[in-house]
Write a structure and sequence with these properties.
single chain, about 325 residues, alpha/beta, Rossmann fold, DNA polymerase, domain 1, Hypothetical Protein Mth938, Chain: A, six-stranded parallel beta sheet, 12 helices, about 35% helix, cytoplasm, MTH938-like_sf, Beta-phosphoglucomutase-like phosphatase (HAD superfamily), AAMDC, HAD-like_sf
């Protein structure tokens, strides 16, 4: 279940990354600095203070505040001439806004965000708009995405983020969100960032209400005999988990216990909440069985199922949860 969709701005809604590169490169070169081959990729997603400090490390004179002010003034002049709106982006945002509340999590300073949204005609569609200038750390830290989710009043793991850069994908994933990546042809994703994305699309127009992936399944943080700790759900003995949430699981709900084992009724809730893969734990000692009828039930619905002792099941589940709408039943004893 998805409760909100949060967009990045630069590279997703406006094709501004080449403009940023041109402006910052010119600023560095004209002030005696040394622009490097990987500078633009490093800067993408940084907060204003972070990238201004980085330009100082390249040999640009002045304080970070002075550098930032100079670059932003030049960007504002570029935007006065033309703001390069991504083809089809306004229509996509309007369509998605008809299904979910929207937020914006951008690395641009507020004055440039306002100008870009005004140019796209989308200002009123975003319930929350936030710059990394307004949080402690820029991307790839999760701060801006966590703050937008909080202001929207939704759990971060029930949000989907739309990003173009490697640092942006890392930021949203670190916040616990499912990520749709729309990488710019000139700035492809790093391999590790691509692995964090639930969906990679070549063009923003491929983002529709049907292609928005389900919310991320909550991560299991700790597991020990008789105890599980799940992100956002707290501590319990056993859990039933699925995309966007979960609850404590009492294995006697359907008379499961060791025999006859996990029943079809135990897994129905996982599928009802969007799971397309299922992980079933057999307990620490492998004593909890899975009824063959349950495996047939899942196979008939083309659901991939993994059955393993609890520790291995948790490892499998957490790996799948990064990119897949996975559900699971976890028993912390036996």
């Amino acid at each position: 279940m998805v409760d909100a969709v949060i967009f990045d701005l630069d590279g997703v809604l406006v094709d501004s990354e080449p403009v940023w590169e041109r402006v910052r490169r010119r600023y560095v070169d004209t002030r005696g600095g040394r622009w490097q081959a990987d500078t633009q990729r490093r800067l993408m997603g940084m907060s204003t203070g972070e990238w201004a400090s980085y330009l100082g490390e390249l040999g640009v004179p002045g304080t970070a505040d002075q550098i930032a002010a100079g670059v932003i003034d030049e960007m504002a002049r570029e935007y006065e001439v033309r703001i390069p709106v991504v083809d089809g982006a306004p229509e996509v945002v309007r369509r998605i806004a008809g299904h979910w509340p929207l937020g914006l999590a951008s690395s641009s300073p507020p004055r440039l965000i306002e100008a870009a949204l005004a140019a796209t005609g989308l200002t009123d569609l975003f319930r929350v708009t936030l710059s990394t200038e307004q949080v402690a750390r820029g991307k790839p830290a999760p701060d801006v995405y966590l703050a937008v989710a909080d202001r929207l009043g939704v759990a971060a793991d029930r949000c989907v983020a739309v990003e173009d850069s490697s640092n942006g994908v890392r930021s949203a994933a670190a916040a616990g969100m499912r990520v749709v990546a729309v990488p710019h042809a000139s700035y492809p994703l790093d391999p590790d960032a691509e692995q964090l994305a639930a969906l990679v699309i070549p063009d923003i127009t491929e983002l529709t209400e049907e292609t928005v992936p389900p919310a991320r399944s909550p991560r299991i943080l700790e597991i020990s005999w008789g105890r599980m700790l799940v992100d956002g759900l707290g501590e319990e003995k056993d859990f039933k988990l699925y995309p966007g949430g979960g609850r404590p699981w009492d294995w006697s709900e359907t008379g499961t216990r060791h025999e006859p084992g996990i029943q079809p009724a135990d897994v129905e809730e996982l599928l009802a909440n969007g799971a397309t893969r299922v992980v079933l734990s057999e307990g620490f000692e492998g004593r909890l069985r899975v009824d063959p009828a349950t495996l047939r039930f899942l196979a008939d619905r083309d659901v991939e199922v993994h059955v393993a002792p609890t520790e291995r099941a948790v490892e499998l589940y957490n790996t799948l949860a990064v990119r897949e709408p996975v559900g699971g039943l976890f028993h912390s004893t036996c």
